[in-house]
Amino acid sequence: MDKYLYEEIRLSMIRRTKFLGIASIACAIVFASIPFISMGLGFFAILFAILSKGYKPKMEKDSKFGLSLGIIGIVISLSITGSVVYKLYSDKEYRNSIYTVMDQFYGDTYEEEFGVTPSEMMEKLFTGGSAND
Amino acid sequence: MTDYNSKSLKELRSNVRGQLIGKYSICIFVTITLAIISLLVTSLTDKVYSGTVGNYLMYLIITIIVDLLSGVLFFGQSRFFLSLARGVQPLSPGEMFYGFKNSTDKAILIQAVFTLVSLFGSIPALLVNFGVLVITPEFSKTFLIVLPIADLLLAFVTKIFVGQSFYILNDHPEYSVKEVLSESIRLMKHRKGKFVLIYITSLPLLLVSILAFGFGALWFGAYFQTLLANFYLDLTGEEPGSPIKEPEPSDSNVSPDFFR
Question: Which of B51, B110, B152, B187 has its CA 20 to 30 A from that of B197?
Answer without folding.
Answer: B110
